[in-house]
């Protein structure tokens, strides 16, 4: 994979008149390399690798290459940071799909208004974060309705409270609930609908999901 990405990035050495021929290849190479960084380690926006990726993007943009700036829904086919894919967690009961999300790059993600987005940024600490969704690993454990859709039957968030999940409401000054904070093993993820979650980076996402999955396993084994 790395050789293929490197080969595509090297098209910058080509002549200017061939730029249009390679612009999609360069964009795809950038996206794949960024996703590789995110999913292969404990990603952080302070990482040197990420800062270098931003410098590469600026250099490519200066050369005339274009990059997507749309902010699609969390479980659509792609995100600004690249295609959605399973996290590399050790989860047995949950499947996690996620990708980079630019909260205010052009507009808030679908379903979030400005007030909620700003509150989320206040907790995440950046305009960019990792946006993900959960679903049961086994098809026969999937629910059709309710607030526990992302958990395998018969697990509920209320049951997980007794195994270490700490749920708190994030409210406005006048008491309106904007978000819910789900804290697992000291790591917080935020959600509006208990389907799509927001967290600081992919590394924290994997640890959060692994923590939830461990609690699910404890409940199922103690039945």
- The percentage of residues in β strands lies in 15-25%
Please outline the major beta sheet. 7 strands, antiparallel
Shape: globular
- Report the span from N to C terminus: 44 Å
Q: Give the low-pLDDT segments.
A: 12-16, 68-88
Number of helices: 6
Spatial strand sequence of the major β-sheet: 3-4-5-9-8-7-6
Give the number of DSSP strands: 9
The Cα radius of gyration reads 19 Å
Give the fraction of residues assigned to helices: 25-40%
- What's the structural domain tally? 2
Give the rounded overall mean pLDDT: 75
| Structure class | alpha+beta
Secondary-structure element sequence? HHHEEEEHEHEEEEH
Description:
This protein is of the alpha+beta class and 223 residues long. Helices cover 36% and strands 21% of the residues. It has helices at residues 2-9, 19-40, 48-62, 114-124, 157-161, 202-221; strands spanning 78-79, 82-83, 85-86, 94-102, 128-136, 166-171, 177-184, 187-191, 196-199. The strands form two sheets. The chain has a seven-stranded antiparallel sheet. Strands 1-2 form a two-stranded antiparallel sheet. Helix 1 runs antiparallel to helix 2 and helix 2 (19-40) runs antiparallel to helix 3. The protein is globular, with a radius of gyration of 19 Å. The model is unreliable at 12-16 and 68-88 (pLDDT under 50).
